[in-house]
């Protein structure tokens, strides 16, 4: 068989595998949709804790956790990795319940409902600020709720996101994210231009900053070498944007806390301009602080370090 024939056969096999995986996931989500949000999410959590440790990605998660927390013994690392899979199951199931989960009402007591928000005054202040803003977060907790929260306060975002490798799942994820999350830009060629265009027009941008980027700035994360995408500080330097960290963590009882933090000052170089490499490190430091507070809620099954 020629190389071209083998390549076509491999692509067909991969497409068939991706289709089967996607249909299995969609079937599970369809079953969960029959339950109330809290019950469906708890079921997804339990199911993922059983399935996740049987996958090849579990080894990656254990290796990453061991590097990040060398003071933990093997049993504690394994337990943390298993609970992390439960959180990943919740992420998948939350696409089904996004609109039901975000029941925030500023007139209601913060202990009521599924969502509480910290930084309401800041949201309102930024809504009336004509200056373009870059919000950044990490693959921590229920990060998908953040654009919905911003839109609730009148802050529309152009959000950069990485599509899943499985194109069938990617199509469904994009559809779910379009419900109330603003404009979305897939992380691929041309994405930087789209974000720049939004900021130039006075709009706001949302970005995830904790992904491995082979051509990124040399930085550290949990004390280990990694490379970080310089896009955020470059955009901030060009458009004089304010930078705000934001995160959403899961709380006991199936609740969520969304937090908008005060403006983050980026390091400056001798000429007064934003120091891109130092700024990338500052972003990593914020994410590391978040992850140390809620280690079970970050995505540990991706390669982040230069190993």
Automatic annotation (TrEMBL):
Q: Which UniProt keywords apply?
A: Acyltransferase, Cell inner membrane, Cell membrane, Membrane, Transferase
Check the record and name the Pfam families matching this protein.
Lip_A_acyltrans
**What GO annotations for molecular function exist for this entry?**
acyltransferase activity
Q: Which organism is it from?
A: Aureimonas flava
Q: In which compartments does the protein localize?
A: Cell inner membrane
GO cellular component: a single term: plasma membrane
For the keyword Acyltransferase, the answer is yes
This chain's protein is named: Lipid A biosynthesis lauroyl acyltransferase
The record's principal subcellular location, in a coarse class, is: membrane
| CDD domains membership | LPLAT_LABLAT-like
Q: Which GO terms describe its biological process?
A: glycolipid biosynthetic process
């Amino acid at each position: 068989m020629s190389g071209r024939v083998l390549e076509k056969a491999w692509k067909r096999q991969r497409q068939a595998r991706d289709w089967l995986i996607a249909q299995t996931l969609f079937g599970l989500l369809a079953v969960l949709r029959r339950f109330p949000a809290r019950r469906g999410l708890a079921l997804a959590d339990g199911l993922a804790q059983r399935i996740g440790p049987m996958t090849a990605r579990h080894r990656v998660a254990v290796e990453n956790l061991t590097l990040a927390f060398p003071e933990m013994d093997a049993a504690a690392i394994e337990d943390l990795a298993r609970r992390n899979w439960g959180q990943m199951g919740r992420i998948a199931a939350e696409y089904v319940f996004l609109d039901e989960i975000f029941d925030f009402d500023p007139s209601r007591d913060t202990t009521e409902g599924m969502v509480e928000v910290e930084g309401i005054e800041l949201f309102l202040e930024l809504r009336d600020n004509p200056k373009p803003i870059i919000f950044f977060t990490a693959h921590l907790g229920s990060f998908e709720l953040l654009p919905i929260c911003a839109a609730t306060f009148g802050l529309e975002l152009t959000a950069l996101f990485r599509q899943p490798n499985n194109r069938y799942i990617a199509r469904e994820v994009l559809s779910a994210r379009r419900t109330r999350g603003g404009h979305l830009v897939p992380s691929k060629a041309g994405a930087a231009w789209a974000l720049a265009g939004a900021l130039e027009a006075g709009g706001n941008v949302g970005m995830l900053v904790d992904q491995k980027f082979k051509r990124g700035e040399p930085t550290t994360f949990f004390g280990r070498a990694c490379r970080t995408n310089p896009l955020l500080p470059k955009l901030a330097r060009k458009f004089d944007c304010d930078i705000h960290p934001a995160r959403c963590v899961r709380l006991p009882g199936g609740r969520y806390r969304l937090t908008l933090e005060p403006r983050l000052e980026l390091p400056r170089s001798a000429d007064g301009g934003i120091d891109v490499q130092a700024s990338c490190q500052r972003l990593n430091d914020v994410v590391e602080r978040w992850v140390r507070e809620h280690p079970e809620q970050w995505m540990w099954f991706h390669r982040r370090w230069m190993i």
